[in-house]
Amino acid sequence: MNKDERMNYLYSVIYRMSICVLPLVVTSYIARVLGAENTGLYAFSSTVACYFIMFGKLGLDNYGSRTIASCKDDAQNLSLAFFGIFVMQMITSILSISVYILLTVTVFKNNQIIYWLQLIYVGAILFDYSWFFYGLEKFKITTIRSLISRLLIIIGVFAFVKSKDDLPVYTGIMAACFLLEQLFLLPFLIGKVDRVRLRKEDIICHIAPNLKLFVPLLALSIYNWMDKIMLGAMLKSTAVVAFYTYAENIINLPKGILTALDTVMLPRISSLAAKSHKEEGIRKMLNSVRVNSFIACALAFGIAGLAPNFIPWFLGQEYRPSIILTMQLSAAIIPMSITNVIQTQYLIPFKKEKTYIKSVSLGALINFILNAVLIPLYGAAGAVIGTLAAETAVCIYLFTRIKNIMGFKELFSALCPYLLCGVLEFIVVYILLNLKIPAFLLLIIQVIAGGCIYVSSNLIFAIYIKKEYRNLKEIIDRI
């Protein structure tokens, strides 16, 4: 990993973490002030809005980044690609916004003000061209705008959200800050592209390849978002949606560290693939699997051990049902992290869309069927089972497709020591729950002890058991 890649990775980590960490600053406050019913309603409405954003953008986050990365050294082609993609995005966004307005008028008649405020959130996709800056590997710009947006959210929430009646205020703040986040990029676009005369073909040519990446994105959304919609629709309880959403949010919090590497490596490996440097791109991907596995195991077992203390302290006693859900969902971090690397750093850069589509479609199908069967029987626990089964199935399927590059034996060899060290970490963190000390102090002790156990046990394995793992820095440098 060269200096530019390290800096881009750092910026990407900061960006991804800001998406999760800074809003988490207000999560405890919002959970107590608005209550489970209101936070569940917000989670349900924002999930609906996310679907319309997804339909408005189609597969642009990945397709746009890949396309820009492949032509960034040619100013003429870069400008043609940008404007062609952007015009297509405008058309699909307007269609999506129109359908959202229609459904708000006809279907979402209860709590309609919340859905109207979410229209600001949906409408912001008209100005979202962050994919352009990802393709150029300008991660510093997107990081700064994200930090500013999250800080505005914190200020707005603490200044204006004071009671359970302020759910519309909270919704408006979140939506408005998302819109400002997109508008922030406009000045930085000036000078990056030149005016060009677009032909109809310059727009149409992006539709088919973009749709190839949209299909897996749609399937992916089924087991990322559909569980909350199915919980709300089947159980008729926004409180259950809140319990599940907060458990999922806690799991998603550290995912920023994992997806940050994928965000940085996608344009880099896409560029290598475009220049026919396939072997170097594959090498980077395989080393990313090892690094992400190391991080994912630490996070999965650590979160599972921290949940019984963290959730009541952070969210309040009302959210105790989220404890077991968080402990169960944490297991999904491991297959999810490996899957993301293969999809983002191998399938997309090397244009293996068919395998990508099959993998996420398999996960979506398993998740949807299990949710439909298990949610009415087991509630939120049924949604957890669906998520774990889907993530595991997708990971296994992908390794059957890349077995000539990295098989199950190699994966097991890389993953086994991290799993064993993670179990030790969990045992220590969980035993510490017996300490009769203030929750916050206990949390600090758990984090320090768990981290020390995980790192030290990995070092012992690296030094005394397996030479391949003696120098983690060497593995990182290979990326």
Automatic annotation (TrEMBL):
Highest taxon listed in the record's lineage: Bacteria
GO cellular component, one term: plasma membrane
Keywords: Cell membrane, Membrane, Transmembrane, Transmembrane helix
TM region positions: 12-34, 40-60, 80-101, 113-132, 144-161, 167-191, 203-223, 229-247, 291-311, 323-343, 355-374, 380-399, 411-433, 439-465
Subcellular location: Cell membrane
Major localization class: membrane
Membrane topology: Multi-pass membrane protein
A Pfam family recorded for this sequence: Polysacc_synt
Protein name according to UniProt: Putative membrane protein
Source organism: Herbinix hemicellulosilytica
